[in-house]
Amino acid sequence: MSKRFIGIDLEGTDVRVAILTAIPGKIDIELDKRSYENPAAAAVAIKEMLGGKITLRDRLITALPCRVGLFRRLRFPFREKNKIEAALPLELRSQLPISLEEHVISFLPPRAREDDYEVDAVVVNKREIDELLTHFPDPEQNPRRIDLFPFALLPILREQDGILVYCRRLEVVVALVYDGMIRDYRLLPGTSELNEEEIFDFIASQVSQLENTIGHEGLPLWIIGAGVTEDLLVLLYKTDRPLLTPAEDVFADKVSYEMAPAALLALSEMREEKKSGQLNFRQGEFSARGQLEVFRAKLIAVALLTLLVVFVGAMVMHLDFLQKTRQESSLKQQMETIFRQIMPENSTIVDVPLQLESQLKDLQEQVQLFGLGGQGAAQVLQGLSSLIDRDIRVDFRDFNYDSDGVNLAGNADSFEAVNQIAESLKTSPLFGQVEIIDAKLAADNSAVDFQLQLKFLNGGER
């Protein structure tokens, strides 16, 4: 199954979904939209739009609206991530009149300036994240990342200077994209009570002010959002500015203004998948559960369901033999009690044995992804941990496992460290081939990004 990159845009009572799949020569896109009355209905709608199932290979991303974030641009005399993480709360407490204990902090990679480093940091209340997660069918794992508009769209927009005009139904964001960054942005909340001319006046005023900050005029405008109307477009066209559609080279005319945010979220995740240069509010208590943790729970469920299927099968055979109505009724009641303890809540009882067998088969298919022989994911991870020298700093960002081997992506301090890691892994009895397929300096020259391909040993030969 191809890997899917899924952008989900929640606004008001609408949920919009864009699914991108890379196929030879192009990117396939599927778009869908549903309305919902409550978070539970939104979760059902999302699952239906994703084909009824979310796999471990799917990458879901969503973004919070701009109005819920508090943005600050800070400077530090260092660029190390751990030092910035330690210093950020102290600096933000001096600038924001809020309790940081009730908020989550995320920041973008530092940018080198003359004598120090510039960091864009955003603070979001935990309530906003908690409420957002209630709209997803499996909030413990998805979405994998929660960003914030307009920063979530930066991977698509930073290749060209311009101004993003993002018209949501409840707010308008005007953001200046300059020199590869969100230079500044302006927010107008409560736009549902304004007409097109009032919204246009705000946009025109803020565009002019933002251009004055950099001494440029006539920058192109990217127009997106469900709040874009025909009347507003007419007013914008009269400014004689170029009006652009983000990622037009990828989507052409397939994506409407309303569906553009979801599509751009998915495309951003596709382009930045192996990097860690975006905001992410899925951290701390909101962190997505690890796949191995989910796998362990599924193994336990498989074992319990296996025993239960055997037990229920025996009970069914015994029921065929029993003739007395009282005994049959009692056994059926026991089966239904066990069914309700094992199966998900709100499951409708139709045929207990068949339903349990179906649940067992579904879980077994998921478990097969990790392997249950001598080369299971848990054993591979244990082998990696024991073989790599503890003095070598290595940060693995991606772990792709299949029946043939493992693809790893991460970063280390130097090319020598990458070579040492590869040589260490060659001594493992698990792998018949270890190959460095890519190694290059990171954009900030602070580390070496690399990819390793590990082939499992077959037949005992290297």
TrEMBL record:
One of its GO terms (biological process) is protein secretion by the type II secretion system. It holds the Pfam family GspL_C. Its main location: membrane. Residues 293-430 form the GspL periplasmic domain. GO terms for cellular component: Gram-negative-bacterium-type cell wall; plasma membrane; type II protein secretion system complex. It comes from the Bacteria. The chain crosses the membrane at residues 299-322. Keywords: Cell inner membrane, Cell membrane, Membrane, Protein transport, Transmembrane, Transmembrane helix, Transport. Gene3D superfamilies: 3.30.1490.300, 3.30.420.40. It is found in: Cell inner membrane. The keyword Glycoprotein does not apply. InterPro entries: ATPase_NBD, GspL_pp_dom, T2SS_protein-GspL. Belongs to the GSP L family. This is GspL domain-containing protein. It comes from Desulfuromusa kysingii.
